[in-house]
Amino acid sequence: MPFDRLLNNVQSVINELENMVVESMMEVKEEIIDLNTSQLEVGKLSTGDTIEPEYVFDSYSKLKKSKGSKAPFGVSDLKLEGDFYSGFETSKLSEGLELSSKDSKAPELERKYSKDIYGLTDKNKSEAAEYIKPILINKILNGIIK
Amino acid sequence: MESLNRIEVSDIIDSSVNVELSLLAQHLESIAASLNAISKNVINKVDNGITR
């Protein structure tokens, strides 16, 4: 490879780096969605706090537990039929990606439990980064040696 | 302020990646300059040999 081209490729990678990261994120969007819904399953917001408010009736909390809820007793997991979870989607932004659910109950759940039902805890962001890094490294190397 | 419902570029990489790539570019520029100097030197020597 001509030396000038190699140098130009490195400069292009520097200029395109943010976009490469976002593209890499989009390639693992299903894994990112799984991380988000797995937080909700155990009753956690992206802040790491417990989802609030708790259920009003103990009888309902018992019912949820009997149906296998992994969230602590009384804590919502936002899951009954699973439509809210299966409606999860990602939107590509210039600086990253945004999580939301296209389920019809989403606006109501956001009002009740806050928009922090979307997004990842710091621990899960680190896990997402582990999925993203090999893809990103590949993009950087391909960009340099193309 | 960072929105919690987003995963941002800064969550995945820090500025050190950019710094490393910039250093790589600087190294490559320096190597290119050395190669240029070497090739000019070789050309001069060949020219001198021809014209001697």
Describe the structure.
- The complex is a heterodimer of chains A (146) and B (52).
- Chain A is mostly helical.
- Chain A has one domain.
- Chain A is built from six helices and two strands; from the N terminus they run ααααββαα.
- The radius of gyration of chain A is 20 Å and the shape is elongated.
- In chain B, 79% of the residues lie in helices and 6% in strands.
- Chain B contains two helices and one strand, in the order βαα.
- Chain B is mainly α and 52 residues long.
- Chain B has helices at 9-12, 15-51; one strand at 6-8.
- Chain B is rod-shaped.
- The model of chain B has no long low-confidence stretch (mean pLDDT 83).
- At the A-B interface, α1, β2 and α6 of A face β1, α1 and α2 of B.
Summarize the structure.
By secondary structure, chain A is mainly alpha-helical.
Secondary structure blueprint with pairings:
The complex is a heterodimer of chains A (146) and B (52).
Chain A: H1 3-27, H2 29-41, H3 58-66, H4 83-86, E1 88-93, E2 96-101, H5 106-113, H6 122-145
Antiparallel strand pairs in A: 1-2
Chain B: E1 6-8, H1 9-12, H2 15-51
Short key terms for the protein model shown above:
heterodimer; A: 146 residues; mainly alpha; two-stranded antiparallel sheet; 2 strands; 57% helix; 8% strand; B: 52 residues; 2 helices
Q: Which word captures the global form of chain B? A: rod-shaped
Order of helices and strands of chain B: EHH
N-to-C terminal Cα separation of chain B, in Å? 72 Å
Helix content of chain A: 55-70%
Radius of gyration of chain B: 23 Å
Task: Please count the helical segments of chain B.
Answer: 2
Chain pair sharing the greatest interface: A-B, 36 and 21 residues
Low-confidence stretches of chain B: none
Summed over residues and divided by their number, the pLDDT of chain B gives a mean of 83
